[in-house]
Amino acid sequence: MAIGTTLAVVLGSGVASAVTYTPGTELAAQAAANQRPNSGTSPEAGPPFAKKNGVWEVNTTGPTLRNTVTDPDGDKSNLTFEVWTTDATGKPKSRVKLTDDNQYGVLVSDFVASGKAAQVTVPAGRLTSGVTYAFHTSAYDGKLYETDWSPWTTFKVSVPAPAKPAKPTSLANNGKPGEFTVALPAGHTAKWVEWQLDAAAWKRVDAAGKTSVTIDTGLRTAALTAPAAPAANNHTLNVRTANDGGASDAVSVAFTGNGTSNGDGDHAVDLTLPDPVSTAPNPDQTKQDITGKITRPLGAPSSSSPRLAAPAAKEQCGPVGKDGGQACFGAPVKFEDLPAEVQAKAKEQAKAKQQRAEAPAAGAPGMTDWCATNTSGAFATRTVECETKQLPVVYRVDGEPIATAYFTMTREISLDNSAKSFVHRLNIHPILISPTFRAIEMVMDNRTCLGSTAAQCKDPGKAELSDWDGKAIWQSPTDTHDANLTTSYTWDNSTSGAEYDLRTDFMIKGILIAGNTPGPTFMTDFRWAMADPSDLEEIRCDTKGTGATVSGCVFKNVAPSYTFNAAKFPQAAAHAWLLQEKLPNTMGVKTRDTPLYYLPGGKRADGKNNRDVICDVASWANTYGDASAMDGVGDKPNCDEFAFNSTYNSGGMPKAEGGLNEVSSGGQCVQTFTKKASDGAVHLYNIDGQAPTWREVCGRSAISGKHNSGSMGGFSGFAKNMRLMDKDPYWLETGMSGQCTTDAKSFKCTLRAN
Predict the structure, then answer these.
(1) Mean pLDDT value of segment 667-696
(2) pTM summary value
(3) Paired strand residues for 38
(4) What are the phi and psi torsion angles at 500 (to 5°)?
């Protein structure tokens, strides 16, 4: 078929279509001439930026590396830094991964003026003291990058060991038998305090930025009285400071029993809480982690929104021509499963894009930074979903592959919590095109909104060539420009209290010309929903909100996280943390896939709240609460239940109504309370005579009413912004972590707010 003529062919779907194609007319203008930048000849590593025997001496595992960079045109440029380990002769041996922000593990400096030094700082934990490394640099001026690396420069990391700590002091007389405090010298450089009891293995506690640390030896039994008392000094505790450069000399203390003759009145549960910080800012509940985890509403089927069934064939192919030729879109291929040549090409292209620090991020205009990636698969927040597919385009003759091109397609859907529209962005990037292809064009044949009527969600239909930002036409193997298409979808929000489940879909028509002009032309269709779609893309739009957010949309299979202000309200955070750590149903823990399920209002069919069941004894909190743990004037003990009243996880929710952890009374839950101990800290204890079995499915605690209500103060806004509905999943981040000792009878921890 001659170039420039109108092509009328029968598509794979059986529908005739006419396309006018004129290869060569859509090529971009050539870039203006430009000279490449050069790495300088003044590489340095420090501090202290001093050499010994030709090697830079560095006194930190997070050194600064720098080199000058020049550009003949006077353009600003940056430098990419690679660091390698060295062999015994000082030659580079293996590359060090300096960052997780890109797949190459390299660091890229800011742009600087020609002739100036560009520098980066190596993140902590990437380099090791006592090791000699080599680094080199490569320049980029925003248009062209240096074709080679600078000469190697070597540096050695030598971090001095920290000063030794003070002698450990027993805390037994403050109600903490077996625990010791260790004071650290002013201005110390220690990252850890290491301790050893009676020549056992050394253990560590974090010391960075601290003036002292607490060591729990785990010795709990009080020293016996005569004549059965053990011999004096029957235990020895050794402590030392340590950092990446090594450890200090050890200091020791010898003691009898657990360091005291006083009984400690042990509780089976003893959590030492941090002091509350009244000025601690509340977490920003709108900031949500990116996830690939599909977490469906309680009881939802595997896919509740409309979708096309997966095809029987793994490829999407066009018709076979008279000469036996056929074009196909292959099944998506994971990046790591691409041919080595294709992976190498993609990495080379990614490096070039990564060096363009002043240029827009890769991907379609407006696309989020984390969406512009070669990572295959789907990822999402509650309002943004991104999916990347690596797709081969294959030309066959009589069933045998003649040529293959590889493309990356990235689709982002960005929803709005307060509008009747949302945006679909598509980026198509060619990785490698076989020279056998004369040209490849991709036409957006239609864009649809599945599972809807026109009144619910309008289908935008086809796209014109002029709608693309960077036309989807590639006419040579060296043409690797991106093609982008942005589509706005609108949905009908005029019906109050309505809810719609939607999916977007589109079909690309591939037009392939093989061989020299005139060459055979083939067509094939690619439908997104038929290529391993992810259920992360299920959209739920509703008009059940209030105020400015009466209308909006979310990805309903993405569970958001509610985060406690643990620094400000540690008592409530500690209670939830304890139950997440110790109970078998681990409610609200993302890493264990045990979400909380939202129950608006916490109401049962009998009109009671779940709270009425868990906090069922009149004045229970006043009976077991302790005034010493209250936070300020007017604060009173309050019953804190977990899981929350407004969840199907609550022990008060009947199984017949979807409850997951039904109990008949809060007396069947873990029973705890808070109290200020003689050490001055507030502790969370089990109620005397009511040690947990850790087979319970719920908990109640007599804690500060201020902490109980304050910890949930942001939840109503969170539920509104995340558009939580009945049975929607979410996670609870307590904001707590602990250093613990545990045995068959006790669970004791020192907690801190993260």
Answers:
(1) 88
(2) 0.65
(3) 70
(4) -130, 135
Alpha carbons 277 and 565: distance in angstroms, whole number: 10
Measured in residues, the chain has a length of 754
Q: Which residues have C-beta within 8 Å of that of residue 140, sequence separation ≥ 6? A: 37, 77, 78, 79, 80, 146, 352, 355, 356
Q: Cα dist. 300→309, 655, 669 in Å? A: 19, 17, 29
Q: Under 8 Å CB-to-CB from 62, ≥6 apart: which residues?
A: 121, 122, 123, 124, 126, 127
Q: Do 219 and 177 contact (CB within 8 A), yes or no?
A: yes
- pLDDT tens-place string over residues 480-505: 899 999 999 999 999 999 999 999 99
| Structure confidence by residue, pLDDT tens digits, 431-470 | 999 988 889 999 998 898 887 776 788 888 889 888 999 9
Tokens of 241: 């400071």
With tokens 């050794």, the residue in question is 238
Overall average pLDDT of the 507-534 stretch: 82
Beta bridge partners of 671: 700
Element (H, E) at 711: helix 705-711
Secondary-structure percent of the chain, ordered helix, strand, coil, rounded to 5:
10, 35, 50
Confidence of residue 655 (pLDDT cuts 50, 70, 90): very high
Comparing 48-57, 108-117, 306-315, which segment has the lowest mean pLDDT?
306-315
226 phi and psi, to 5 degrees? Answer: -60, 150
- Nearest Cα to 114, choosing from 139, 82, 151, 135? 139
Structure-block tokens of residue 63: 């050194």
Cβ distance 465 to 496 under 8 Å? no
Counting residues of the chain whose pLDDT is more than 90, the rounded percentage is 54
Tokens 């509703």, located at residue:
542
Cα gap 659→606, rounded to integer Å: 14
Paired tokens of 385: 């979903």
In 415-529, the DSSP E strands lie at 421-432, 437-450, 473-474, 483-490, 499-514, 521-527
Query: Cα-Cα-Cα-Cα dihedral of 629, 632, 635, 636, to 10°?
Result: 20
What would the two tokens of residue 62 be?
Answer: 């997070």
- Model pLDDT for residues 688-734, shown as the tens digit of each residue: 767 888 989 999 999 999 999 999 999 999 999 999 999 999 999 99
What is d(CA 519, CA 382) in angstroms, rounded to the nearest whole number?
48
Q: Which amino acid is at 737?
A: S
H-helix or E-strand containing 193? strand 192-197
Q: What is the rounded distance in angstroms from the CA atom of residue 567 to the CA atom of residue 587? A: 21
Cβ atoms within 10 Å of 711's Cβ, excluding its own: 26
Q: Which amino acid is located at 204 in the chain? A: R
| Alpha carbon distance 638, 110 (integer Å) | 54
Neighbouring residues of 708: CB distance < 8 A, sequence distance ≥ 6: 569, 571, 572, 638, 639, 640
Radius of gyration of the chain (CA): 32
H/E/C letters for each residue in 205-226? EECCCCCEEEEECCCCCCCCCC
How far apart are the C-alpha atoms of 545 and 496, rounded to whole Å?
A: 9
- Look-up of token digits 């990046």: 335
**Tokens 């292809």 belong to residue:** 437
CA nearest 637: which of 577, 726, 697, 701? 701
Give pLDDT, residue 689: 62
C-alpha 62: how far from chain center:
24
Cα-Cα end-to-end distance for the chain:
68
Question: Could you tell me the CA-to-CA distances from 662 to 506, 642, 657 in Å, in that order?
Answer: 46, 12, 10
